[in-house]
Design a protein that fits this description.
Elements lengths: L1 E10 L3 E5 L10 H4 L15 E5 L5 E9 L15 E7 L7 E3 L6 E3 L7 E8 L1 H7 L4 H7 L1 E8 L6 E4 L3 H11 L7 H30 L7 H5 L5 H6 L1 H9 L2 H18 L6 H10 L10 H10 L7 E3 L10 E3 H12 L4 H16 L3 H11 L1 H10 L41
Parallel strand pairs: 4-9
Antiparallel strand pairs: 1-4, 2-3, 2-6, 5-8, 5-10, 6-7, 8-9, 11-12
Helix pairs in contact: 2-3, 8-15, 9-12, 9-13, 11-12, 12-13, 13-14, 14-15
């Protein structure tokens, strides 16, 4: 015999537990743990879990736990115990412990994963409960418990001794409960609960993804484009779905259109060496594309290029209210050259939006006008009406030119305009 616990334990709500897998939600209350039993001082109806009521509601009581190699003889040493019950208990995990209510404490018992017989003894249940309203320290000194465990085959629960009214209440309560479900029924119920939880989890994921994509789930192709389109997806989700729905040739045309308009908006469509790069992207020239950083550095040093700033606070979250418009337009050149026509169109549109800044809604509307296939695709994707491009879209008037710089250009390491979503 080994004594694994002998001290005054903190009791809350008149209950303690033996749990065999703290990482698993295997606990239960008296209705679940005592169903079908003939006694109510040790609830063992749930696999791998014991519910142990006490007379004291709140306070500290002496509690001893012993682990035996075989059944202790019911001799005169038990005369001091007013309540004695027995149940069978089989751990479902390797971590078996006596636990306090609410996670206030846990005491390892070191049991093997074999069926055990449990003998739960108590005394002073009525006295502690009656004294609790007067003196908690006194009440705690009147009640004590002994929990004994040893390996043994499964057997029905037994009521060996009953003295107190408190114990009688629990025994009557247990006998009033219907029998627990059969193992097959329990397994079916657990399986149904897991399936329901999985369905609910998936429904939450779908609802979240729909919100992220403007109320419509993305196609696998659109989802595969990745985070590069997060920015345009946030401000013009209907246009994103429309671009995804048109054919590859239209997508490529949209990419070239967005590149040309971005360069025109930034005043770069009159710079010969940049025009040659655009023609090469469109397949009409042979000029190789230099590095994006190299293009930005060259346009910064070219005296023929006017430098202007554009307000982008409506598109970019953060502390960068304005950017160099010419640097913002540059990514459209490289986006339009992307081998994936869908990504080329969407990222080019996003770069073009940066050159328009706060007037970005105008160019998205113009895209629908210039590409009827896009407007038809958007109407097909959103038959009940497309979500607005933005809550505060400006009126459809001619947008003002970007401001001349009042400060040194703000240029990032790549071009000054973040990838979509950054």
């Amino acid at each position: 015999m080994r004594t694994v616990l002998s001290e005054r334990l903190s009791v809350s709500y008149g209950q303690l537990y033996v749990a065999s897998d703290p990482g698993r939600d295997s606990g239960g209350g008296p209705h679940e743990t005592m169903a079908g039993q003939t006694q109510g001082l040790a609830g063992a109806a749930l696999p791998g879990f014991l519910y142990l009521p006490t007379g004291l509601h709140t306070g500290h009581i002496p509690f001893t736990v012993e682990v035996h190699e075989s059944a202790p003889a019911l001799d005169g040493s038990y005369d001091a115990w007013e309540e004695i019950v027995e149940v069978s208990f089989t751990p479902v995990g390797d971590d078996v412990s006596l636990d306090l209510w609410g996670g206030d404490g846990s005491f390892p018992l070191g049991l093997d994963r074999v069926c055990h017989r449990v003998r739960y003894c108590g005394s002073g249940l009525d006295e502690s409960r009656n004294a609790e309203t007067v003196d908690l320290d006194l009440a705690g000194s009147l009640e004590r418990h002994l929990l004994q465990l040893w390996p043994a085959p499964h057997a029905p629960d037994r009521l060996l001794r009953q003295t107190s009214q408190d114990a009688a209440y629990w025994h009557d309560f247990a006998r009033s409960l219907p029998p627990p479900p059969a193992p097959e029924e329990r397994a079916a119920a657990e399986r149904e609960a897991r399936e329901r939880e999985e369905r609910e989890r998936r429904d939450r994921e779908i609802a979240y993804e729909k919100r992220e994509w403007g109320g419509r789930l993305p196609t696998p192709q659109l989802r595969a484009v990745g985070g590069d389109i997060a920015g345009i997806r946030q401000v013009a989700p209907a246009l994103v779905h429309a671009v995804d729905a048109v054919d590859a040739a239209t997508q490529r045309s949209v990419a070239h259109w967005a590149m040309r308009r971005a360069f025109a908006r930034a005043g770069l469509d009159r710079v010969d060496w940049l025009v040659e790069l655009m023609r090469a992207v469109e397949g009409e020239g042979e000029a190789p594309l230099p590095s994006q950083q190299g293009v930005v550095e060259r346009l910064l040093s070219d005296p023929a290029i006017e430098h202007t700033m554009v307000r982008v606070a409506a598109l970019v979250h953060g502390s960068v209210p304005r950017l160099l418009q010419q640097a913002v337009a540059t990514p459209a050149l490289y986006a339009a050259a992307d081998p994936d026509p869908l990504r080329a169109a969407l990222v080019s549109l996003w770069a073009e939006a940066g050159t328009y800044g706060e007037e970005y809604a105008l160019l998205f509307s113009r895209a629908l006008d210039d590409f009827p296939a896009l407007r038809e695709a958007q109407a097909h994707c959103f038959p009940d009406g497309a979500p607005a491009i933005s809550d505060g879209a400006p009126a459809a008037v001619a947008p003002p030119r970007a401001e001349p710089p009042e400060e040194p250009p703000i240029v990032g390491p790549a071009a000054g305009w973040p990838r979509s979503g950054e």
